[in-house]
């Protein structure tokens, strides 16, 4: 094996270690709970409502039930807002039942495997259009990026999308110049984009950017090939017709109501930070102020240093005829996707920048540009430059793996620790508005169940809050259950609206003002006498 081949193997192994280490150590959060419900073949119907159930029974909600892909697709069409491809693939994966793994590992292992393949695809993309060294550095960026590791440990579709985007961009870059195998690249480009659109709706942003790039390139250099472009695009659209009615329903649904209101500066800052954490992510969330300051300064300083060196290499890529076209195409792709993000944020007033996971649409192109730029020789020794960048990537990935950065949204583990203050049985009450609230409640209950001893039988109940919380307070008073603590998760409830005391059958539970918290939603402890 050549040195470069050995280097690629080492990078793949390193990326694999990052993605598989502590894979089940972090609790499943809201979105991953949704993945588990649908891919197990259950859906939301399995969740009890207005009825007490034990924390120990929650893992049973994810018991695998063999279903056809059409059934899974129907769950998504009526109960969610996602295309079906990833969920159907995941359902088949869970059906293999290869090992006696924990629920979290079962759900995250396949996305982790997809993430490992993205390392290989990043190498292929850069080697195809830049150089062997660019391919190795691009693979290294993907292997050690904290953002890529974070996505690789999520039980969601993002790593599969990274694969499709990397494949589509590779084909696109080969299509810029006519070759003997153009038909194969057209086929790969069309299939990758069709599958991507069946995996996540934001993939449409990637597809639109690719169409614009090819349209103007062919319009300028090869107008005769515009007909082929239109034909392949129409083919992708026709392949999507079976799901089109569902898309229309999903786009008019209220599933994006969780996105916050938009001001002018916050989305720009969030987008900037999203680019920073693609290369470095030190502990900032829920850390003491001094650690936040030091980590923030270090991250910004490293980002400036890296941007300087990338800029030197990037200019050389633009100057060389052999790399100019690919560099411009990838840069235009990033710019077009960013423009579409801004249109959604400021035009539709949906701040998608708040969720860094959506930056998957940019990432394969950014990874390729970083790898190709860092591979260019500059005045500095390239080995030292890469050593520093790689060291920061490794350290940042370790922070991600051991849950010191990229915390799971809504902090289910920390919330469960707060719930778990009593050694006696407790009761958790949650007022829910929609299915996402149900999934959030299950994430808390599952995390708490993993922290409590088996003999500490505790209960959970969901109450519909559509008719107000007075009905919920009355419902709690009628529950025939013994509990030392009652925790109320009050979605849509202000702090002052929590009553000073609650009745629980024949007992009185007093509000513990020192144990009121708000992580996106509020929750309050009541101590029962």
N-to-C SSE string, H for helix and E for strand:
HHEHHHHHHHHHHHHHHHHEHEHEEEE
Beta-strand content: 5-15%
Mean pLDDT: 92
Count of alpha/pi helices: 20
Number of strands: 7
Shape verdict: globular
Distance between the termini: 72 Å
Structural class: alpha/beta
Question: Can I get a quick summary?
Answer:
With 529 residues, the chain is an alpha/beta fold. It is 58% helix and 9% strand. The model has no long low-confidence stretch (mean pLDDT 92).
Explain what this protein looks like in three dimensions.
The structure is a single chain. Helices cover 58% and strands 9% of the residues. The protein contains 20 helices and seven strands. The model has no long low-confidence stretch (mean pLDDT 92).
SSE order and pairing:
Elements: H1 3-20, H2 30-39, E1 53-54, H3 69-79, H4 85-96, H5 103-129, H6 132-144, H7 146-152, H8 158-175, H9 182-197, H10 203-221, H11 226-239, H12 244-251, H13 265-276, H14 289-319, H15 321-347, H16 363-374, H17 382-401, H18 412-419, E2 426-432, H19 435-451, E3 459-464, H20 469-477, E4 485-490, E5 501-504, E6 507-519, E7 521-528
Parallel strand pairs: 2-3, 2-4
Antiparallel strand pairs: 1-3, 4-7, 5-6, 6-7
Give a quick set of tags describing it.
alpha/beta, 529 residues, 7-stranded mixed sheet, 20 helices, globular
């Amino acid at each position: 094996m050549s040195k470069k081949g050995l280097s690629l193997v080492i990078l793949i192994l390193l990326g694999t270690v990052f993605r598989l280490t502590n894979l089940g150590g972090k609790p499943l959060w809201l979105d991953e709970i949704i993945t588990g419900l649908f891919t197990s073949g259950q859906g939301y119907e399995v969740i009890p409502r207005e009825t007490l159930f034990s924390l120990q029974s929650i893992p049973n909600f994810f018991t695998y039930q063999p279903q056809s892909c059409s059934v899974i697709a129907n769950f998504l069409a009526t109960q969610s807002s996602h295309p079906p491809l990833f969920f159907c693939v995941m359902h088949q994966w869970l059906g293999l039942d290869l090992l006696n793994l924990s629920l979290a590992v079962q759900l995250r292992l396949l996305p982790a495997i997809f993430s490992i393949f993205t390392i290989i695809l990043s190498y292929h993309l850069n080697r195809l259009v830049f150089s062997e060294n660019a391919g190795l550095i691009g693979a290294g960026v993907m292997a050690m990026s904290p953002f890529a590791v974070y996505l690789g440990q999520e039980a969601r579709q993002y790593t599969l999308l990274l694969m499709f985007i990397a494949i589509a961009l590779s084909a696109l870059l080969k299509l810029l110049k006519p070759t003997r195998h153009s038909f194969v690249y057209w086929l790969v480009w069309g299939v990758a984009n069709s599958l991507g659109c069946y995996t996540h709706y934001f993939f449409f942003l990637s597809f639109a950017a690719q169409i614009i790039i090819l349209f103007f390139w062919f319009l300028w250099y090869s107008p005769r090939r515009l007909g082929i472009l239109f034909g392949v695009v129409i083919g992708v659209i026709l392949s999507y017709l079976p799901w089109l009615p569902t898309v229309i329903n999903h786009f008019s649904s209220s599933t994006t109501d969780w996105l916050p209101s938009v001001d002018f500066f916050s989305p720009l800052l969030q987008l900037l930070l999203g680019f920073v954490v693609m290369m470095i992510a030190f502990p900032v969330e829920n850390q003491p102020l001094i650690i936040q300051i030091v980590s923030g300064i270090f991250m910004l300083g490293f980002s400036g240093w890296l941007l300087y060196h990338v800029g030197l290499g990037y200019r050389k890529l633009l100057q060389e005829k052999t790399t100019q076209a690919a560099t411009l195409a990838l840069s235009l792709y990033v710019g077009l996707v960013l423009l579409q993000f801004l249109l959604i944020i400021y035009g539709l007033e949906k701040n998608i920048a708040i969720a860094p996971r959506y930056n998957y649409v940019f990432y394969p192109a950014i990874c390729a540009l970083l790898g190709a730029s860092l591979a260019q020789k500059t005045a500095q020794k390239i080995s030292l430059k890469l050593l520093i960048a790689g060291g920061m990537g490794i350290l940042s990935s370790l922070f991600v793996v051991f849950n010191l950065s990229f915390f799971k949204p809504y902090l289910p583990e920390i919330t469960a620790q707060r719930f778990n203050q009593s050694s006696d049985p407790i009761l958790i009450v949650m007022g829910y508005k929609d299915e996402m609230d149900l999934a959030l409640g299950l994430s808390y209950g599952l995390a708490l169940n993993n922290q409590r001893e088996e003999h500490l039988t505790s209960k959970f109940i969901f109450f519909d809050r559509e008719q107000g919380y007075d009905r919920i307070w009355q419902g709690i008073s009628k529950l025939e259950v013994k509990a030392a603590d009652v925790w109320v998760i009050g979605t849509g409830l202000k702090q002052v609206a929590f009553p000073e005391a609650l009745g629980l059958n024949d007992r009185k539970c007093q509000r513990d003002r020192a144990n009121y918290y708000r992580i996106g939603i509020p929750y309050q402890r009541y101590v029962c006498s």
